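Here is an idea for our session: we take a single protein and study its fold together. Once you have written the record down, we can walk along the chain together.
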Amino acid sequence: MSDFANEYERQRQENIRRNEEILQQLNIPDIVRSFKKPKPKPRPPKVKTQPIRHSLRLRGVKPDSSEGILSDLSMAKDSRKDYEVDKVQTNDVNFDSVPGGKEGLKAVRWRCRSLNLKTTEDWSSVKVTPERIYCISVHPSKDKILVSAGDKQGSLGFWDVNEINVNEYGNGECQTFMFDAHTKTITCSQYSPTDSNLLFTSSYDGSIRYLDLNQAKSIETFVSNEYTYTHFDMDSTGQIIYFSTNEGTVGVKDIRQPITVFNGYDLHDKKVGCISLNPIRPELMVTASLDRTMCLWDIRKLGSDCKVQEFTFTKSVTSAYWSPTGDKVVSTSYDDLMRVFYYNEERKLKERIQIPNNNQVGRWVTMFRATWNPNPNLHPHFIVGNMKRSADIYSAVTGELIGNMRDENLSAIPAVNAFHPKLNIIVSGNASGRMVVWQEKPKVTPIVLV
Protein backbone atom coordinates (compact mmCIF):
# COMPACT_ATOMS: atom_id res chain seq x y z
CA MET A 1 0.00 0.00 0.00
CA SER A 2 2.86 2.31 0.87
CA ASP A 3 4.54 1.64 -2.49
CA PHE A 4 1.33 2.61 -4.29
CA ALA A 5 1.09 5.89 -2.30
CA ASN A 6 4.67 6.76 -3.04
CA GLU A 7 4.20 6.16 -6.77
CA TYR A 8 1.05 8.33 -6.77
CA GLU A 9 2.85 11.19 -5.01
CA ARG A 10 5.77 10.97 -7.46
CA GLN A 11 3.40 11.27 -10.45
CA ARG A 12 1.57 14.23 -8.83
CA GLN A 13 4.81 16.12 -8.27
CA GLU A 14 5.90 15.36 -11.84
CA ASN A 15 2.59 16.81 -13.17
CA ILE A 16 3.06 19.97 -11.08
CA ARG A 17 6.59 20.46 -12.41
CA ARG A 18 5.48 19.93 -16.03
CA ASN A 19 2.62 22.48 -15.62
CA GLU A 20 4.99 25.06 -14.18
CA GLU A 21 7.33 24.65 -17.17
CA ILE A 22 4.42 25.23 -19.55
CA LEU A 23 3.36 28.37 -17.62
CA GLN A 24 6.93 29.66 -17.77
CA GLN A 25 7.04 29.16 -21.52
CA LEU A 26 3.75 31.13 -21.91
CA ASN A 27 4.96 33.96 -19.60
CA ILE A 28 1.77 33.62 -17.54
CA PRO A 29 3.42 34.64 -14.22
CA ASP A 30 4.65 37.94 -15.72
CA ILE A 31 1.19 38.69 -17.14
CA VAL A 32 -0.49 38.02 -13.81
CA ARG A 33 2.01 40.25 -11.98
CA SER A 34 1.33 43.05 -14.47
CA PHE A 35 -2.33 43.18 -13.48
CA LYS A 36 -3.26 46.06 -11.16
CA LYS A 37 -5.94 45.82 -8.59
CA PRO A 38 -8.98 47.91 -9.65
CA LYS A 39 -9.50 51.04 -7.64
CA PRO A 40 -12.75 51.07 -5.71
CA LYS A 41 -15.37 53.47 -7.04
CA PRO A 42 -15.66 56.61 -4.98
CA ARG A 43 -18.69 56.61 -2.73
CA PRO A 44 -21.22 59.32 -3.44
CA PRO A 45 -21.34 62.02 -0.82
CA LYS A 46 -24.00 61.61 1.81
CA VAL A 47 -27.06 63.74 1.21
CA LYS A 48 -29.07 64.89 4.16
CA THR A 49 -32.59 63.59 3.80
CA GLN A 50 -35.79 64.67 5.43
CA PRO A 51 -37.00 62.65 8.39
CA ILE A 52 -38.99 59.57 7.46
CA ARG A 53 -42.71 59.89 8.01
CA HIS A 54 -44.11 57.65 10.71
CA SER A 55 -47.70 57.11 11.67
CA LEU A 56 -49.01 58.45 14.93
CA ARG A 57 -49.43 54.88 16.15
CA LEU A 58 -45.72 54.09 15.65
CA ARG A 59 -44.75 57.32 17.38
CA GLY A 60 -46.99 56.58 20.33
CA VAL A 61 -49.14 59.64 19.79
CA LYS A 62 -52.89 59.53 20.16
CA PRO A 63 -54.83 60.15 16.91
CA ASP A 64 -56.63 63.20 18.31
CA SER A 65 -53.43 64.80 19.50
CA SER A 66 -51.39 67.36 17.60
CA GLU A 67 -48.17 66.40 19.41
CA GLY A 68 -45.27 65.75 17.09
CA ILE A 69 -47.04 66.87 13.95
CA LEU A 70 -45.83 70.45 13.86
CA SER A 71 -42.25 69.43 14.58
CA ASP A 72 -42.13 66.84 11.81
CA LEU A 73 -40.30 68.54 8.96
CA SER A 74 -41.44 65.92 6.50
CA MET A 75 -45.06 66.99 6.94
CA ALA A 76 -44.92 69.48 4.11
CA LYS A 77 -48.00 71.65 3.72
CA ASP A 78 -50.28 70.89 0.81
CA SER A 79 -50.66 74.04 -1.25
CA ARG A 80 -54.30 73.17 -1.78
CA LYS A 81 -54.89 73.61 1.97
CA ASP A 82 -53.34 77.06 2.20
CA TYR A 83 -56.57 78.77 1.22
CA GLU A 84 -58.39 80.79 3.79
CA VAL A 85 -62.15 80.52 3.77
CA ASP A 86 -63.50 83.73 2.33
CA LYS A 87 -66.42 84.03 4.70
CA VAL A 88 -68.89 86.85 4.99
CA GLN A 89 -69.18 88.12 8.53
CA THR A 90 -72.61 87.49 9.98
CA ASN A 91 -72.86 91.09 11.12
CA ASP A 92 -72.34 92.28 7.53
CA VAL A 93 -75.22 90.25 6.11
CA ASN A 94 -78.65 91.76 5.58
CA PHE A 95 -80.76 88.80 6.65
CA ASP A 96 -83.97 90.61 5.72
CA SER A 97 -83.60 89.36 2.15
CA VAL A 98 -82.58 85.82 3.19
CA PRO A 99 -85.31 83.16 3.54
CA GLY A 100 -85.95 82.61 7.23
CA GLY A 101 -83.91 85.61 8.28
CA LYS A 102 -81.15 85.25 10.85
CA GLU A 103 -83.09 82.57 12.70
CA GLY A 104 -83.27 80.59 9.47
CA LEU A 105 -79.52 79.92 9.65
CA LYS A 106 -79.88 78.54 13.17
CA ALA A 107 -82.84 76.44 12.09
CA VAL A 108 -80.88 74.83 9.25
CA ARG A 109 -77.99 74.14 11.58
CA TRP A 110 -80.30 72.32 13.97
CA ARG A 111 -81.88 70.43 11.07
CA CYS A 112 -78.45 69.11 10.12
CA ARG A 113 -77.61 68.13 13.69
CA SER A 114 -80.84 66.21 14.05
CA LEU A 115 -79.96 63.84 11.18
CA ASN A 116 -78.61 60.36 11.84
CA LEU A 117 -77.47 57.57 9.57
CA LYS A 118 -80.24 55.05 8.99
CA THR A 119 -78.92 51.68 10.15
CA THR A 120 -80.16 48.32 11.37
CA GLU A 121 -78.46 45.39 13.03
CA ASP A 122 -77.74 43.92 9.60
CA TRP A 123 -76.66 46.92 7.49
CA SER A 124 -75.73 50.59 7.43
CA SER A 125 -75.56 50.98 3.64
CA VAL A 126 -77.59 49.40 0.86
CA LYS A 127 -76.37 47.97 -2.44
CA VAL A 128 -78.50 49.71 -5.09
CA THR A 129 -76.41 49.47 -8.30
CA PRO A 130 -73.71 47.03 -9.48
CA GLU A 131 -71.12 49.71 -10.26
CA ARG A 132 -70.03 53.18 -9.16
CA ILE A 133 -72.84 55.71 -8.64
CA TYR A 134 -72.70 58.79 -10.85
CA CYS A 135 -76.01 60.51 -10.05
CA ILE A 136 -78.81 60.44 -7.48
CA SER A 137 -82.45 61.53 -7.56
CA VAL A 138 -84.97 61.69 -4.70
CA HIS A 139 -88.68 61.34 -5.37
CA PRO A 140 -90.60 64.36 -4.00
CA SER A 141 -93.25 62.25 -2.26
CA LYS A 142 -93.60 62.72 1.50
CA ASP A 143 -95.33 59.39 2.04
CA LYS A 144 -92.80 57.08 0.35
CA ILE A 145 -89.07 57.76 0.57
CA LEU A 146 -87.92 56.54 -2.84
CA VAL A 147 -84.35 57.21 -3.95
CA SER A 148 -82.63 56.24 -7.18
CA ALA A 149 -79.08 56.06 -8.50
CA GLY A 150 -77.51 55.75 -11.95
CA ASP A 151 -74.22 53.92 -12.24
CA LYS A 152 -71.24 53.47 -14.54
CA GLN A 153 -72.62 50.61 -16.62
CA GLY A 154 -76.06 52.15 -17.25
CA SER A 155 -78.07 50.53 -14.46
CA LEU A 156 -80.77 52.55 -12.73
CA GLY A 157 -81.38 51.31 -9.19
CA PHE A 158 -84.14 52.21 -6.72
CA TRP A 159 -84.37 51.92 -2.96
CA ASP A 160 -87.64 52.14 -1.07
CA VAL A 161 -86.08 53.38 2.14
CA ASN A 162 -88.78 52.62 4.68
CA GLU A 163 -89.78 49.22 3.28
CA ILE A 164 -88.14 46.24 4.96
CA ASN A 165 -88.69 42.65 3.80
CA VAL A 166 -88.07 39.69 6.11
CA ASN A 167 -86.30 36.80 4.41
CA GLU A 168 -86.60 33.11 5.19
CA TYR A 169 -83.92 33.39 7.87
CA GLY A 170 -85.80 36.10 9.73
CA ASN A 171 -83.40 38.90 8.71
CA GLY A 172 -84.57 42.25 7.42
CA GLU A 173 -83.77 43.05 3.80
CA CYS A 174 -84.12 46.37 2.01
CA GLN A 175 -86.61 46.83 -0.79
CA THR A 176 -84.51 47.52 -3.91
CA PHE A 177 -85.06 46.99 -7.62
CA MET A 178 -83.12 47.82 -10.76
CA PHE A 179 -83.59 48.58 -14.47
CA ASP A 180 -81.07 48.31 -17.30
CA ALA A 181 -81.95 51.78 -18.55
CA HIS A 182 -78.83 52.44 -20.66
CA THR A 183 -75.88 50.59 -22.12
CA LYS A 184 -73.28 53.06 -20.82
CA THR A 185 -72.77 55.42 -17.89
CA ILE A 186 -75.83 57.32 -16.65
CA THR A 187 -74.56 60.87 -16.25
CA CYS A 188 -77.64 62.66 -14.90
CA SER A 189 -81.14 61.90 -13.64
CA GLN A 190 -84.02 64.20 -12.85
CA TYR A 191 -87.75 63.90 -12.19
CA SER A 192 -90.08 65.80 -14.48
CA PRO A 193 -91.16 69.10 -12.85
CA THR A 194 -94.77 68.43 -13.90
CA ASP A 195 -95.05 64.65 -13.46
CA SER A 196 -93.17 62.98 -10.61
CA ASN A 197 -93.82 59.56 -12.12
CA LEU A 198 -91.38 60.28 -14.96
CA LEU A 199 -87.66 60.00 -14.22
CA PHE A 200 -85.45 61.31 -17.05
CA THR A 201 -81.87 60.06 -17.51
CA SER A 202 -78.99 60.90 -19.85
CA SER A 203 -76.13 58.62 -20.80
CA TYR A 204 -72.87 58.27 -22.66
CA ASP A 205 -74.67 55.85 -24.98
CA GLY A 206 -76.11 58.83 -26.89
CA SER A 207 -79.65 58.78 -25.58
CA ILE A 208 -81.95 60.55 -23.14
CA ARG A 209 -84.74 58.37 -21.79
CA TYR A 210 -87.44 58.51 -19.17
CA LEU A 211 -88.70 55.78 -16.89
CA ASP A 212 -92.43 55.68 -16.28
CA LEU A 213 -92.78 54.49 -12.70
CA ASN A 214 -96.43 53.54 -13.17
CA GLN A 215 -95.73 51.31 -16.15
CA ALA A 216 -92.16 50.32 -15.13
CA LYS A 217 -91.12 51.04 -18.70
CA SER A 218 -88.11 52.96 -20.06
CA ILE A 219 -88.87 55.05 -23.15
CA GLU A 220 -86.48 56.90 -25.46
CA THR A 221 -86.89 60.65 -25.61
CA PHE A 222 -83.90 61.61 -27.69
CA VAL A 223 -81.29 59.57 -29.60
CA SER A 224 -78.24 60.83 -31.48
CA ASN A 225 -75.05 59.07 -32.55
CA GLU A 226 -73.19 62.38 -32.77
CA TYR A 227 -72.80 63.11 -29.06
CA THR A 228 -72.26 61.62 -25.64
CA TYR A 229 -74.48 63.35 -23.11
CA THR A 230 -72.92 64.57 -19.88
CA HIS A 231 -75.75 66.49 -18.18
CA PHE A 232 -79.17 68.04 -18.73
CA ASP A 233 -81.81 70.28 -17.20
CA MET A 234 -85.49 70.86 -17.92
CA ASP A 235 -87.67 73.95 -18.16
CA SER A 236 -90.66 74.47 -15.87
CA THR A 237 -93.06 72.84 -18.35
CA GLY A 238 -91.11 69.60 -18.48
CA GLN A 239 -91.29 69.65 -22.29
CA ILE A 240 -87.95 71.30 -23.18
CA ILE A 241 -84.64 69.63 -22.31
CA TYR A 242 -81.34 71.52 -22.39
CA PHE A 243 -78.46 69.05 -22.56
CA SER A 244 -74.67 69.24 -22.61
CA THR A 245 -72.21 66.97 -24.39
CA ASN A 246 -68.68 65.68 -24.21
CA GLU A 247 -67.89 67.61 -27.39
CA GLY A 248 -68.68 71.07 -25.96
CA THR A 249 -72.11 71.36 -27.57
CA VAL A 250 -75.25 72.49 -25.76
CA GLY A 251 -78.49 71.25 -27.30
CA VAL A 252 -82.18 72.03 -26.98
CA LYS A 253 -84.70 69.21 -27.35
CA ASP A 254 -88.50 69.49 -27.43
CA ILE A 255 -89.70 66.04 -26.36
CA ARG A 256 -92.96 66.51 -28.31
CA GLN A 257 -90.99 66.37 -31.55
CA PRO A 258 -89.47 63.23 -33.17
CA ILE A 259 -86.66 61.69 -31.14
CA THR A 260 -83.93 62.68 -33.60
CA VAL A 261 -84.91 66.37 -33.93
CA PHE A 262 -82.98 68.92 -31.86
CA ASN A 263 -81.01 72.17 -32.08
CA GLY A 264 -77.31 72.16 -31.18
CA TYR A 265 -74.98 75.06 -30.38
CA ASP A 266 -71.19 74.91 -30.00
CA LEU A 267 -70.81 77.03 -26.87
CA HIS A 268 -67.54 75.59 -25.49
CA ASP A 269 -64.31 74.23 -26.93
CA LYS A 270 -64.26 71.20 -24.63
CA LYS A 271 -66.59 69.01 -22.60
CA VAL A 272 -69.49 70.71 -20.85
CA GLY A 273 -69.90 68.76 -17.62
CA CYS A 274 -72.83 70.62 -16.11
CA ILE A 275 -75.75 72.76 -17.24
CA SER A 276 -78.31 74.54 -15.05
CA LEU A 277 -81.39 76.67 -15.80
CA ASN A 278 -82.50 79.50 -13.53
CA PRO A 279 -85.78 78.45 -11.89
CA ILE A 280 -86.98 82.07 -11.49
CA ARG A 281 -85.49 83.72 -14.56
CA PRO A 282 -85.96 81.01 -17.21
CA GLU A 283 -83.93 82.91 -19.82
CA LEU A 284 -80.68 82.43 -17.86
CA MET A 285 -78.45 79.36 -18.01
CA VAL A 286 -75.02 78.55 -16.56
CA THR A 287 -72.55 75.97 -17.89
CA ALA A 288 -69.40 74.45 -16.40
CA SER A 289 -66.73 73.18 -18.77
CA LEU A 290 -63.48 71.30 -19.05
CA ASP A 291 -62.07 74.38 -20.82
CA ARG A 292 -61.76 75.98 -17.34
CA THR A 293 -64.66 78.38 -17.75
CA MET A 294 -68.07 78.91 -16.23
CA CYS A 295 -70.40 80.91 -18.46
CA LEU A 296 -73.71 82.70 -18.07
CA TRP A 297 -75.97 82.57 -21.14
CA ASP A 298 -79.17 84.19 -22.35
CA ILE A 299 -80.94 81.24 -23.98
CA ARG A 300 -83.27 83.58 -25.87
CA LYS A 301 -80.29 84.46 -28.05
CA LEU A 302 -78.82 81.01 -28.64
CA GLY A 303 -77.14 80.95 -32.00
CA SER A 304 -76.09 84.60 -31.87
CA ASP A 305 -74.58 86.81 -29.19
CA CYS A 306 -75.94 84.84 -26.24
CA LYS A 307 -72.98 84.90 -23.81
CA VAL A 308 -73.58 87.27 -20.89
CA GLN A 309 -70.52 86.49 -18.74
CA GLU A 310 -67.51 84.23 -18.63
CA PHE A 311 -65.44 83.31 -15.58
CA THR A 312 -62.02 81.70 -16.11
CA PHE A 313 -60.68 79.25 -13.53
CA THR A 314 -57.18 77.80 -13.13
CA LYS A 315 -58.54 74.24 -13.45
CA SER A 316 -61.56 72.63 -15.09
CA VAL A 317 -64.98 73.44 -13.65
CA THR A 318 -66.93 70.32 -12.71
CA SER A 319 -70.31 71.81 -11.80
CA ALA A 320 -72.35 75.03 -11.52
CA TYR A 321 -75.94 75.12 -10.24
CA TRP A 322 -78.52 77.84 -9.70
CA SER A 323 -80.03 78.07 -6.23
CA PRO A 324 -83.79 77.35 -5.87
CA THR A 325 -84.38 81.09 -5.41
CA GLY A 326 -82.53 81.88 -8.66
CA ASP A 327 -80.22 84.51 -7.19
CA LYS A 328 -77.09 82.46 -6.50
CA VAL A 329 -74.79 80.00 -8.27
CA VAL A 330 -72.44 77.54 -6.56
CA SER A 331 -69.56 76.11 -8.59
CA THR A 332 -67.09 73.28 -7.98
CA SER A 333 -63.68 73.06 -9.62
CA TYR A 334 -60.50 71.01 -9.62
CA ASP A 335 -58.71 74.07 -8.22
CA ASP A 336 -60.09 72.87 -4.86
CA LEU A 337 -62.38 75.83 -4.37
CA MET A 338 -66.14 76.12 -4.24
CA ARG A 339 -67.39 79.54 -5.23
CA VAL A 340 -70.72 81.22 -4.54
CA PHE A 341 -71.82 83.86 -7.04
CA TYR A 342 -74.62 86.36 -6.47
CA TYR A 343 -76.85 87.60 -9.26
CA ASN A 344 -77.14 91.35 -8.83
CA GLU A 345 -79.36 94.15 -10.09
CA GLU A 346 -77.03 94.72 -13.04
CA ARG A 347 -78.05 91.27 -14.32
CA LYS A 348 -74.55 89.98 -13.70
CA LEU A 349 -72.99 87.31 -11.52
CA LYS A 350 -70.48 88.47 -8.92
CA GLU A 351 -68.26 86.13 -6.93
CA ARG A 352 -68.83 86.61 -3.23
CA ILE A 353 -67.61 83.54 -1.31
CA GLN A 354 -64.76 81.06 -1.74
CA ILE A 355 -64.67 77.83 0.25
CA PRO A 356 -61.75 75.36 0.06
CA ASN A 357 -62.64 71.74 -0.60
CA ASN A 358 -60.35 68.91 -1.69
CA ASN A 359 -61.79 67.92 -5.07
CA GLN A 360 -58.90 65.66 -6.13
CA VAL A 361 -61.06 62.55 -6.10
CA GLY A 362 -58.85 60.48 -8.40
CA ARG A 363 -59.93 57.84 -10.85
CA TRP A 364 -62.20 55.65 -8.75
CA VAL A 365 -64.40 58.22 -7.02
CA THR A 366 -67.13 60.21 -8.76
CA MET A 367 -66.27 63.90 -9.00
CA PHE A 368 -67.71 66.14 -6.29
CA ARG A 369 -70.60 68.47 -7.16
CA ALA A 370 -71.94 71.00 -4.68
CA THR A 371 -75.75 70.64 -4.83
CA TRP A 372 -78.42 72.87 -3.30
CA ASN A 373 -81.20 72.02 -0.94
CA PRO A 374 -84.13 72.51 -3.37
CA ASN A 375 -86.45 73.96 -0.71
CA PRO A 376 -86.63 77.73 -1.46
CA ASN A 377 -88.16 78.52 1.94
CA LEU A 378 -85.06 77.47 3.88
CA HIS A 379 -81.85 79.36 4.47
CA PRO A 380 -79.83 78.72 1.25
CA HIS A 381 -77.30 75.94 1.77
CA PHE A 382 -75.63 73.18 -0.22
CA ILE A 383 -73.88 69.85 0.33
CA VAL A 384 -70.65 68.45 -1.11
CA GLY A 385 -68.60 65.30 -0.65
CA ASN A 386 -65.53 65.20 1.58
CA MET A 387 -62.49 62.97 1.00
CA LYS A 388 -62.53 62.12 4.73
CA ARG A 389 -65.56 59.86 4.22
CA SER A 390 -68.15 62.47 5.09
CA ALA A 391 -70.27 65.17 3.47
CA ASP A 392 -70.19 68.87 4.33
CA ILE A 393 -73.07 71.35 4.36
CA TYR A 394 -72.30 75.06 3.89
CA SER A 395 -74.26 78.26 4.15
CA ALA A 396 -74.42 80.15 0.84
CA VAL A 397 -74.84 83.41 2.76
CA THR A 398 -71.94 83.31 5.22
CA GLY A 399 -69.83 80.51 3.75
CA GLU A 400 -69.56 78.75 7.10
CA LEU A 401 -69.77 75.02 7.68
CA ILE A 402 -73.15 74.33 9.24
CA GLY A 403 -73.20 70.54 9.11
CA ASN A 404 -70.91 67.54 8.70
CA MET A 405 -72.50 64.21 7.85
CA ARG A 406 -70.13 61.69 9.39
CA ASP A 407 -70.57 58.25 10.90
CA GLU A 408 -68.19 55.48 11.95
CA ASN A 409 -70.22 53.03 9.85
CA LEU A 410 -69.32 54.86 6.64
CA SER A 411 -66.55 52.88 4.95
CA ALA A 412 -66.46 54.79 1.63
CA ILE A 413 -66.54 58.38 0.43
CA PRO A 414 -70.11 59.67 -0.08
CA ALA A 415 -69.23 61.39 -3.35
CA VAL A 416 -72.77 61.98 -4.67
CA ASN A 417 -75.31 63.67 -2.40
CA ALA A 418 -78.85 65.01 -2.66
CA PHE A 419 -81.50 66.55 -0.41
CA HIS A 420 -85.10 65.44 -0.26
CA PRO A 421 -87.18 68.25 -1.84
CA LYS A 422 -89.66 68.41 1.05
CA LEU A 423 -88.35 66.44 4.04
CA ASN A 424 -85.28 66.74 6.22
CA ILE A 425 -83.50 63.83 4.56
CA ILE A 426 -80.13 63.53 2.81
CA VAL A 427 -79.16 60.69 0.48
CA SER A 428 -75.57 59.75 -0.39
CA GLY A 429 -73.99 57.32 -2.86
CA ASN A 430 -70.48 55.94 -3.24
CA ALA A 431 -68.18 54.19 -5.69
CA SER A 432 -69.34 50.70 -4.63
CA GLY A 433 -72.91 51.25 -5.79
CA ARG A 434 -74.10 51.58 -2.20
CA MET A 435 -76.33 54.28 -0.74
CA VAL A 436 -76.98 55.64 2.75
CA VAL A 437 -79.77 57.83 4.09
CA TRP A 438 -79.55 60.48 6.79
CA GLN A 439 -82.88 61.15 8.46
CA GLU A 440 -84.35 62.26 11.75
CA LYS A 441 -84.97 59.66 14.38
CA PRO A 442 -88.68 59.08 14.91
CA LYS A 443 -90.02 60.89 17.92
CA VAL A 444 -91.06 58.60 20.73
CA THR A 445 -94.09 59.67 22.71
CA PRO A 446 -93.43 59.14 26.42
CA ILE A 447 -95.77 56.78 28.22
CA VAL A 448 -97.40 58.32 31.26
CA LEU A 449 -98.31 55.85 33.95
CA VAL A 450 -101.49 56.70 35.78
